[in-house]
Amino acid sequence: MDDYFREFEDRRPPDPLPYSAAREMLWQFLATLTLFVGAWYVIWRWGHSLNPDALWFAIPLVVAETCAYLGLVLFVYNLWRDQPVRVPEAPATVRDIDPDNPDPDRPITVDVLFATYNEEPELVRLGIVDAKAIDYPHPIDIRIHVLDDGKRPEMEAVARQEGVGYITREGNEGFKAGNLRNAMERTSGDLIVICDADTRPFPTILSRTLGYFRDPKMAWVQTPQWFYDLPEGRRLPGRLGRIFGRMRVGADPFVNDPQMFYDVIQRRRNRVNAAFCCGAGSIHRREAVMEAALRSFGEAVERRVIAAEEEITLESRERRVSPELLEAIRTEAVTAEVLTPYRFHVSEDIYTSIVLHSDRERGWKSWQHPYVESRMLSPQDLLTWTIQRYKYAGGSLDIMFNDNSLFRRGLTLPQRMMYGATFYSYLGAIWNVVFLFAPAIYLFTGIAPVSAYSNDFFEHVIPFMILLELSMMVGTWGIAGYAAKASYLAFFPVGLRAIWAVARGQKISFPVTPKDRQSGRFLHLVRPQLAVLVLTGAGVLWGLGALAVGGTPHTLTGVVTNALWGLNNCVAMAGIVAAALWQPPATKEAAA
Question: How many whole angstroms separate alpha carbon 184 and alpha carbon 467?
């Protein structure tokens, strides 16, 4: 393992995307124009373009386009405004983050918690060593703890050797969320830093983030996650390398780089207090987490009491329950309910964020910090990538459908829209299936979903597509966007599986994302994407043949349009198929 990490030790994270008021104005202008032209296109599609002889094809496609347009509206709202990159001054004493503290002049205490289950102890040691090197401009009390749900003697030995705390428990109830709850019961820091087993914090993680807690309503700060072992790929050879400069092929085959999410999507949620917690690399105010837990606990107890009271009155036909019996019911409800600072859920981080944001009485705030303050390991094979993405999708959809989170009392309308954008994005697999297979349907049958591939059609669709690309390019300036879009399209089998699991009421499991590369090739995981490639390729050949032979409904414009559309789909699918076959280079020199 030491050899593996040594190869990447010299890598440094990217700086935050710079703020530009001029670029933001241009983005807002282009985005507004795009939404107007997009609405014009969608209205025209419904009213004037459907093929009446193939409504079985025309209606699913226009519904998919409408759903995608609604997603665009939410995405534009998310990206609407950015803020300048600023880092607040680090607080000196607990008075600066908690004005009502009874001991205001003491140093701030911070618990750094490493949650682990079955990861290699030496991997966790790397994070511990880095945490011990955390720097701060004022006296501070940093307490590092290993939370070992695996109860391993070798992990305890590492903790003892490094001189840090070791916390375990009898069972594994609630998995990571239960592990964190157990640790909170046995620690007392003013602030809590949550780390995964592979998180390696930088020395600046506290000096550049604790200043946000000068606001006594700041509940947590999320820092960007950065995967420092992403494959760098190979430089383009010869003349291609000179023409395209620093471009590489084979870099980040799994599109793991999260900069688009943290530096664009999350950062722009700060304006409406809707940046949510993503687990590792986040800093929490203990008071906020515990208060939210107590509030949720009280609400859960009250729901149990009301349900029991209604059942008793229905059975006994009495108008009310006696005070003695009601007190007994309440006592039983308190005993049955579990106090959970971090809810026992596969997506405990986003669920806890919703609970805190909905507490209007306290007005808790969150913030997405712009600078990378830790490094982590990326999924290095498609199996690991699939496990991780399924967990993200299934957990988010489970919250959306089973916890009625978007209508939770206390959330503001902008917060609902931001959380809605997150949940809605995971539904995209449904309409992406239509977009992926529609070209092949036309190419094989000659049946068009539109009344005609006429000038009227292109006069509506082309301006929208051009404006969409321009606005997204400006809105995400500084980050290559095509890889993210292609990955989102290629994600559809995992997304559909998560949607189906939640729709059936299936419990989303808590798998630990593997930290070591899983050996082998994983073509069996990309069979749906291969189907898109094969069907589209065969469809293009069939469509061209039909044009040559004649006697079919195919038109030259229709075949060319759908062939180009299908080619775009195939390029997106080819990326994930290549990821299934990807093998790491044997040495660092091989990647150069």
Answer: 50
Chain centre to alpha carbon of residue 336: 33
Q: Give the type of residue at 257.
A: D
Long-range CB contact pairs, 40-46, < 8 A, 24+: 40/460, 40/464, 41/460, 41/461, 41/464, 42/66, 42/69, 44/460, 45/450, 45/460
| Tokens describing residue 352 | 């806890």
492-515 pLDDT, tens digit per residue, is: 999 999 999 999 988 776 555 555
Which pLDDT tens digit goes with each residue over 326-350?
A: 677 777 765 665 555 555 455 678 8
Q: What is the pTM of this model?
A: 0.88
DSSP states along 365-434: EEEE-SS--EEBPPP-SHHHHHHHHHHHHHHHHHHHHHS-GGG-TT--HHHHHHHHHHHHHHHHHHHHHH
What is the band of 590 on the pLDDT scale with cuts at 50, 70, 90?
Answer: very low
Helix H or strand E encompassing 28: helix 21-44
Helices 21-44 and 55-79: crossing angle in degrees, nearest 10, is 160
Q: Which of 180-194, 293-307, 424-438, 542-556 has the lowest mean pLDDT?
A: 293-307
Backbone angles phi, psi at 143, to 5 degrees: -120, 115
The answer to whether 295 and 108 are in contact (CB under 8 A) is no
Rounded Cα distance between 189 and 183, Å, is 11
Angstrom distance (rounded) from CA 440 to CA 435:
10
Residue 507, Cβ neighbours under 10 Å: how many?
Answer: 10
**CA–CA gap between residue 95 and residue 533 (Å, rounded):** 61
Q: How many helices and strands (H and E) does the chain possess?
A: 19, 11
User: Nearest Cα to 147, choosing from 136, 174, 135?
Assistant: 174
pLDDT at position 591 is 41
The candidate with the shortest Cα–Cα distance to 295, out of 360, 391, 379, is: 360
- Segment 579-591 mean pLDDT: 64
DSSP 110: E
Give me 294's structure tokens: 């107590």
What is the bridge-based pairing of β-strands 218-222 and 365-368?
parallel
488's tokens: 């989102």
259: number of Cβ within 10 Å: 20
- For tokens 């030995």, the residue is 157
Measured between alpha carbons, how far is 428 from 93 in angstroms, rounded to an integer?
47
Least confident segment among 122-126, 147-151, 342-346? 342-346
Confidence of residue 156 (pLDDT cuts 50, 70, 90): very high
- How many of the other CB atoms lie within 10 Å of CB of 358? 20
**Which alpha helices (DSSP H) does 112-271 contain, by range?**
121-132, 153-162, 175-185, 238-244, 259
How far CA 478 is from CA of 15, 84, 224, 248, in Å, comes to 11, 15, 16, 17
Closest CA to 276 of 349, 180, 211, 371: 349
pLDDT at 269 over 80: yes
